[in-house]
Amino acid sequence: MSQNLKWLDNIKMEFEAVSQELDEAIDRDKLKRELSKKQTALESQIVQESKLNEDLKNQLADLTRRSDDVDKVCNLLKTRLNIADSDKNKLESAREQFLLAKELTGIRLDFEYCAKHPNKAKGYIKNQHKHLLESFDMDINSDALWDLVANIFVTGDENWPPNNK
């Protein structure tokens, strides 16, 4: 029996050794699979991050181009805003002519309304002598406006001295 026991012990030890080798091989295989999954996940993450990085680089390049375009437009506007001396003189002359015409005719325009309604004229006519303000709101028609001015400034007996009536 002792022979059988030795033989059984040898078989048992060999079986345990084979089992241990198989367990180690299975553990190594599991570890390889886990590492392979992690590597695949990391590689896909790297691919995604690379795509995102490329997109961000493209957006940065686009924004840089836009910024350059905006800078060019701003510089262009700055140069156009610098009015030459001759233009300043023309502007001042036109301003003086406008103020003189405003005082002579008494016409005051509502420029905000006129800017919103390009085919309309709105404002009032001021007659200091009669202490009168006559408002108007009409289609743009210079003849009609001049008729209105003429009617307000109609002279009658106000030019006669008060005692000669």
UniProtKB/TrEMBL annotation:
Record carries keyword Coiled coil: yes
Coiled-coil blocks: 8-73
Top-level taxon of the source organism: Eukaryota
Keywords carried by this UniProt record: Coiled coil
Keyword match Coiled coil: yes
Protein name: Kinetochore protein Spc24
Organism: Pieris brassicae
